[in-house]
Design a protein that fits this description.
Strand order of the largest sheet: 5-2-1-6
Number of helices: 5
Structural class: alpha/beta
Largest sheet: 4 strands, parallel
Radius of gyration: 17 Å
Strand content: 15-25%
Shape: globular
C-alpha cells in the first residue's frame, strides 16, 4: 500500500500574528514556546523544509524572569576579531540596557542555524515596554 505525503505549497501558508506578554514568564520556557510558533510546529501543515510559522510580538521584555543565580552567572560574550577583543556582559546588565536582546538571543539559539532559521527569526518582534506599533496586524493574545 502506498501513502502519499502532503507537502504544503507557498500559497497555502496562512500567517497570523500573536502577541505575548513576557511579564513574569521564565526566559527559557518563553523562548521554547515562541521558537515553536516561529517554526510552525503548532500547525498540522508543518513541513521541516519550509517556513510555515507565524509572527510573534513580545512585549514587556524587561520584566522577564530567570531562576537561580543566572543574573550574575550568565554571561553573554562577543569578540571583535582583534587581539584582546573579547567583550563580556552579564545578564543583569543586558536586561538593564537592552532587555529585548536577551529574548532574541534565547530564541535565535532554538531556531535552525541556516537560511531558513534566519527567515524564521525575522518574524519575531521584541519590545521592552508594554506597547508595540503592530496594532494594524490585529495580533491575537497568546497565553503561554
Amino acid at each position: 500500500m502506498r501513502v502519499n505525503t502532503y507537502v504544503v505549497k507557498e500559497g497555502e501558508i496562512e500567517r497570523t500574528w500573536f502577541v505575548v506578554d513576557a511579564e513574569g514568564q521564565n526566559l527559557g520556557r518563553l523562548a521554547t514556546r515562541v521558537a515553536t510558533i516561529l517554526r510552525g510546529k503548532h500547525k498540522p501543515m508543518y513541513t521541516p523544509s519550509m517556513d510555515v510559522g507565524d509572527f510573534v510580538i513580545i512585549v514587556n521584555a524587561d520584566k522577564v524572569q530567570v531562576t537561580g543565580n543566572k543574573l550574575e552567572d550568565k554571561l553573554y560574550r562577543r569578540h571583535s576579531l582583534y587581539p584582546g577583543g573579547l567583550k563580556t556582559v552579564s545578564l543583569r546588565r543586558l536586561l538593564a540596557t537592552h532587555p529585548e536582546r536577551v529574548i532574541e538571543h534565547a530564541v535565535r539559539g532554538m531556531l535552525p542555524k541556516n537560511k531558513l532559521g534566519r527567515a524564521m527569526f525575522r518574524k519575531l518582534r521584541v519590545y521592552a515596554g508594554a506597547t508595540h506599533p503592530h496594532a494594524a496586524q490585529q495580533p491575537q493574545p497568546l497565553e503561554l
